[in-house]
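Possible regression after last week's pipeline update?

I re-ran a chain I had predicted before the update to compare outputs. Posting the input and the new output here so someone can diff against the archived version. Not blocking, just want to make sure nothing changed silently.
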Amino acid sequence: MNKKLPILLLISVFIIATCGLIYELISGTLASYLLGDSVTQFSTIIGVYLFSMGVGSWISKYFDKNLLSWFVRIEILVGLVGGTSSSILFLVFESISSFRFVLYALISVTGVLVGLEIPLLMRILKDRFEFKDLVSKVFTFDYIGALIASLVFPLLLIPYLGIVRTSYMFGMLNVAVALIACIGFEHEIKGVKYLKSASIISLAALLAGFIFAEKITSFSESLTYSDTIIFSKSTPYQRIIITKKGRDLRLFLNGNLQFSSVDEYRYHEALIHPVLQALPNAKHVLVMGGGDGLAVREILKYPQIETVTLVDLDKEMTHLFRTNDMLVKLNKRSLLAKKVTVINADAFSWARVQHKTYDAIIIDFPDPSNYSVGKLYTNTFYGIVKHLLNPDGIIVVQSTSPYVAPKSYYTVEKTLQSVGFHTVPYHNYVPSFGEWGYIMAMNMPVYKVPEHYLPGLRFMSKETLEQMLYFPKDMARVQGQVNRLNNQVLVKYFDEEWSNVL
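New output (post-update):
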């Protein structure tokens, strides 16, 4: 056996370990984008993937001869399946009803193939090292590869390459291992000419996919969105899509509509003005979420406001709404105003270490469709935020639809009450969303409907707010549990209620 073989194959352990974990992370991230509930998606995908690797390891005992040839074949297959998996999943998401079947089938096939790799390598290397050295070397390279993958995936790959290009790139790495093995050990591999040709063709196909990744992604997303996509980007936290049709700009995060420029004023005026009109002396406002700057736009209409602090997790989001001409026009340059400080941080962690207090706190997070967002609707989080509110201040929380999801809506109210807040629920109709709900929370037990509103508002008035405070029978109170950090029942309620509609 060629003396180079052990070293090159040990290096290949590092490469295939990195590739294997990357495919797992890609599947989990993409499923979270398309299906929501990141905890559930990652948990089930990791479970299926590891089980499939176990199946692959078990199957490896049936490979008795030509182990190098089999290793090369498996590397080519892993590269093709793993490299094209993200494109396949994007393309079939809207076109077939059994998307989850395709998702878990691809994960299973990839897992089985990856599970075959290490046992075959160990058997190829068993005559070159003592058993204890073989095990330590193989698993050291394996774990180092896994560490590298887990670090570069969120920090470098998703921000700079995106999901589709990342999968093609690591598919090429797998096939490159096969090709190098064919070139370096051609006298020891049966059918090397065939395998070498297969490697070159596969590498070329994956390279073409890498080059045309944006077109593949754009085509797949055009199947999902009826309007023209003018911006799309994957960040470490979400997939941002902006569409345009006529004068209507729409923002989607992970496939969920966040606003339509045609009627967003209804949502944002209802979010901001019932609070600030009731606080004529408010000077300092905190906004949590709302990285589009539309809530901040409404706040800046009050000349007495001295500072606005915006805390939003995704720096790509706030950067987009600070730099894109159409979006800057929509939010009236609010994120560029001197009064506004933008902080890109996790609101939960950020709030825990703050000591400054605010006259008004606007909580405008996405709906609690997964546990990473659901923690921002828990009694733990509201208890933290309570310490940031001045004694006579007011908090407002966007709280999903009391018509579609009444149990979720009133769970938010109950959770706010559980930390000592007095609450005022209200709702309004936003054509692009339907009936939508908000909850004001305050230390004082009395809220008076403001008599006057700023001139120039398109929607809010005293009469409008009075109507918002009335809930008809089909939005009657539904009892639920307090949403706690250790159970997050709100995510369960939300999923159940919205699943019955969608």
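Follow-up from reviewer: compared with the archived run. The chain has a mean pLDDT of 89. Marking as no regression found.
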